[in-house]
């Protein structure tokens, strides 16, 4: 989930088996013969910002109360119709907050299916995520459910999230999904406090039978701004490990807000004499687009610069023609190391992290392992 997904369980997941799959070695190629200037790979809709949890890393700083100006059922249905007009159709993700905080969430899912959009969902791990809810997801035809694990044990996961019981709820939800035949992915946030548990979390992902592991490199936004990030050098080590772990894993590994994973993978492939092709990635406004609970359209849930509102302008028009979106696709115009980098065309750095660090979406990504040495 790309995630925005895009952070785990609160706006950014990309719960799809084929998300970010790119087997082409040419820098300008796109998965599924998709031109990202015309059609995104992933559309994520923040169904609501309401959530019973108050996780320490939440981008949205979610609160229990719903916003009075959320898109209505009919307005959301119009959004689904707009998504259905993209060709090829993007993956569509219901996220939040917690989608289950909307009493009409199952009606929304059914409407999406009725207009020809196959939704995925990233529910929060609250008591509402019980077997009955998951059974309804499966019956409606949800493509995939994403669950967050930020620790390999209840102690470490619940401590990171600041909420007791969330680990147990996630494990039980995964087991219910397996019983019901609903595909799952696991989302994990990488920070200085979680990074050492990644190998054990990967084992959990395998034990749970997940189809995908989405590894999200923290963007310091919302409550997440108070968390300690890893260093660029550590990020490179983690990505090298992720690539090697993924070569024989029964699940797919994708990274979110860390597009330089492509460069890491290519270097490791070159060392091994492999021609497996590049790992894929989408970027803010370049393959990925985020629609807020009130209809505002952003390049990413972590890049709070609006391109407009779907209540006034159709999503395809905003995605294709807004000046900010076009700027984010013109990677040669980026500032500093990201603009000068030899792999800008296929990486471009995290625009969300660049914005958080520099105040401009065209700045350089401070987590990139090459930014200092090439700047």
UniProtKB/TrEMBL annotation:
Cited InterPro entries: Aldolase_TIM, Elp3/MiaA/NifB-like_rSAM, PqqE-like, Radical_SAM_PqqE_MftC-like, rSAM, rSAM_sf
PROSITE patterns xrefs: RADICAL_SAM
Start and end residues of each stretch annotated as Disordered: 1-35
Key word GTP-binding present: no
Cofactor or coenzyme needed: [4Fe-4S] cluster
UniProt-listed SMART domains: Elp3 (SM00729)
Residue ranges, compositional bias (Basic and acidic residues): 14-25
Residue span, Radical SAM core domain: 37-248
Gene Ontology MF terms: 4 iron, 4 sulfur cluster binding; catalytic activity; metal ion binding
Keyword terms, alphabetized: 4Fe-4S, Iron, Iron-sulfur, Metal-binding, S-adenosyl-L-methionine
Matching PANTHER family: RADICAL SAM DOMAIN PROTEIN (PTHR11228), TUNGSTEN-CONTAINING ALDEHYDE FERREDOXIN OXIDOREDUCTASE COFACTOR MODIFYING PROTEIN (PTHR11228:SF34)
Name of the protein in its database record: Radical SAM superfamily enzyme
């Amino acid at each position: 989930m790309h995630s925005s997904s895009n952070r785990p369980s609160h706006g950014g997941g990309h719960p799809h088996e084929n998300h970010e799959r790119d087997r082409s070695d040419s820098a300008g190629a796109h998965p599924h013969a998709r031109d990202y200037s015309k059609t995104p790979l992933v559309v994520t809709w923040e169904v609501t910002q309401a959530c019973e949890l108050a996780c320490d890393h939440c981008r949205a700083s979610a609160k229990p109360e719903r916003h009075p100006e959320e898109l209505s059922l009919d307005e959301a249905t119009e959004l689904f119709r707009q998504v259905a007009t993209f060709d090829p159709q993007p993956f569509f993700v219901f996220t939040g907050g917690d989608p289950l905080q909307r009493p009409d969430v199952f009606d929304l899912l059914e409407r999406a299916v009725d207009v020809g959009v196959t939704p995925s969902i990233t529910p929060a791990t609250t008591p509402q995520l019980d077997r009955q809810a998951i059974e309804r997801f499966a019956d409606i035809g949800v493509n995939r459910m994403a669950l967050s694990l930020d620790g390999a044990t209840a102690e470490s996961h619940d401590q990171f999230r600041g909420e007791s019981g969330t680990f147990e709820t996630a494990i039980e939800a995964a087991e219910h999904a397996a019983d019901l035949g609903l595909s799952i992915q696991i989302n994990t946030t990488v920070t200085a406090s979680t990074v050492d548990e990644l190998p054990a979390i990967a084992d959990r992902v395998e034990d749970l039978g997940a189809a995908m592991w989405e590894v999200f490199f923290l963007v310091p936004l919302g409550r997440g701004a108070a968390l300690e990030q890893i260093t660029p050098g550590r990020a490179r080590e983690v990505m090298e490990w992720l690539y090697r772990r993924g070569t024989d894993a029964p699940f797919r590994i994708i990274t979110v807000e860390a597009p330089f994973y492509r460069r890491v993978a290519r270097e490791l492939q070159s060392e091994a004499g492999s021609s497996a092709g590049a790992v894929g990635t989408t970027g803010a406004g370049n393959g990925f687009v985020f629609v807020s609970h009130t209809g505002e359209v952003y390049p990413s849930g972590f890049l709070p610069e609006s391109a407009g509102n779907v209540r006034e302008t159709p999503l395809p028009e905003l995605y294709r023609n807004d000046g900010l979106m076009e700027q984010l696709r013109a990677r040669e115009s980026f500032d500093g190391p990201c603009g000068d980098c030899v792999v800008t065309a296929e990486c471009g750095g995290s625009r969300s992290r660049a914005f958080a660090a520099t105040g401009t979406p065209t700045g350089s990504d401070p987590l990139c392992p090459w930014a200092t040495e090439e700047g």
